[in-house]
Design brief:
By secondary structure, this protein is α/β, with parallel strands linked by helices. It contains eight helices and seven strands. The structure holds S-adenosyl-L-homocysteine (SAH), 3,4-dihydroxybenzoic acid and magnesium ion (MG).
Amino acid sequence: MTPELFEKVDHYISGLFAVEDEALTNTISSLNEEGIPQISVSANQGKFLQVLVTLCNAKRILELGTLGGYSTIWMARALPQDGKLLTVELEPRHAAVAKKNLDFAGVGNKVQIVTGKATEILEELIAGKEDPFDLIFIDADKPPYAEYFELALQLSRKGTLIICDNVIREGKVLDETCKDESSQGAHRFNKMLSRNDKVTAIILPTVGVKEFDGIAISVVK
Ligand code: SAH
Ligand code: DHB
Ligand code: MG
């Protein structure tokens, strides 16, 4: 088995289940045009998020790390008419590009982009006694994933789904001496998650058009 085969199979699946419309393809092109890295989830991962949004009947979603709004569009489209998605982005430039993409995708009315550091925004939401979210997607910077998760728990209720992207990093999490800060953050996060008795959790390894990685799925008990 080769990366080429994984890519072909990923395209086979997305051709069946995750066909992108103009809003999604434009969002991916907008990243190139604006010099923003191509680190959105894949089409199949976007559809997977959509399936999870539907599975948990989500009306309130929180996302950390908006980038150009690609994952946001997939999730927001699975929300009901009165659903809301709050997405947190550090870079004002990313937030501005995302705003345009979300409006073009027709979900601008359901999505609020908040610009700022994820930790600070989470602390503000907790202090402001924000209602719990039904689904939380953590996909911002990787080193503080464990801290993000602890804060996310405080914005959860029994049954909340907490999804964390990029927790395997091409298998670099296996190497405890790895200098890469993102891999170290993921390694620390995975260990914490495996011992956290507030959730039941698992990691799904992901192969396909993106680098070999993994998504952690947790349900609050
Ligand atoms: N969820 C997006 C991809 C997010 S990439 C998608 O799949 O389409 C990670 C994003 O997190 C980047 O836009 C980056 O600017 C943002 N980010 C990095 N550090 C952050 C922080 N401390 N707080 C909030 N956002 C952060
Ligand atoms: C990176 C971040 C992501 O969210 C992702 O899905 C892939 C890569 C990164 O920062 O390298
Ligand atoms: Mg990611």
